Amino acid sequence: MPSSPLTDGLSALTGRFATPPLPRPTLADTIAARRRFFGPDAVDAETGAVRSDQVIVSWFGCASFAVALGGTVLLLDAWVPRGVTSGYVPTTPTEVAALAPAGIFIGHGHFDHAADAGPITLASGAVLHGTPSHCATARKQVGGAELSCQELGSDETAPGDRFDFELAPGLSVTAVRHVHSARTPRDESADGSAPVRPRPCLCDIRTHPPTLGDAGHLARNLVAPEGGVLLYQFRTENFVLTWHDSSGPLLDKAPHVLDVLRTLPASDVHIGAIQGFNQFTNGLRDPRSYVEALRPKVFVPNHHDNWFPVMTARGEAFRTPLHEELARLPEETRPEIRMLLDPDDYLAPGRLVFDLP
Which of 43, 61, 266, 343 has a CB 3.0–4.6 Å from the CB of 89, allowing a cystine? Predict the structure, then answer.
């Protein structure tokens, strides 16, 4: 976002809230964090290795997930929600960094997805994946310290462009540039959906009031740039996991991206954003378009919890609209829905465990 009186004022106001770098995790820290996120039975108590015969997914708020995919630990987005509340999500950036991920994948650069990207990358030594803008923002978060960052595309990368690479032996990744959620005119066609307008829930501010440090952290990152939007698909020989942290109005703005998504292998598990700006006009039509294109067996919603209680509601408010929306798909292509509900499903790996064939 360009300099303005608002951004300059926020920078001046919040400079005094600067926090020290996260500590480098020890092996003991990593073992403890992994056992908490992935379950004690899934993690070797001496080495911290995660079992290789499963995919385990652990949600820590908004669109952020820790994933153990065939034994490889990944982070999808890098933000522990806080600032309007404190402690609603029961973890910290220090604990997330202690997971010692092999890679961190940023869907887009807004604060609610990447505000902890720089500190977690620096402390963990992981490779950050994202656009050049995402990498630049992460470096600013740590005062320009050197980070390991794999830049995907450039500022000129267009929606629909894709990037393919190997993350580890037997684990390939495809990233596809798409678009952020945005409000578009009401779709009056048969494909349109009714608006979804849950009432904001201030309840969690009362029970989890923000600390001064968390409020400062939020203020420092509030105007972070989007920097482009990426969807990621992770593939092993016998499992496909797809994740994205925003669902844009592709039907209106970039229908060719749906054609690109249709060329990808069908997803065993699809973790997709359902909360977005277009819900107030076109309901959950946009998330449904991603599900139709990606053809998952299991769909898991994200970005639908009370991460910003002055404008969001708990995930329970989306349960019925999501089931009704996906019920519009033909029965033979309709995925199983694994609904995640805050706060009970934070750091609850038993909700999302999949055996590898």
Answer: 61
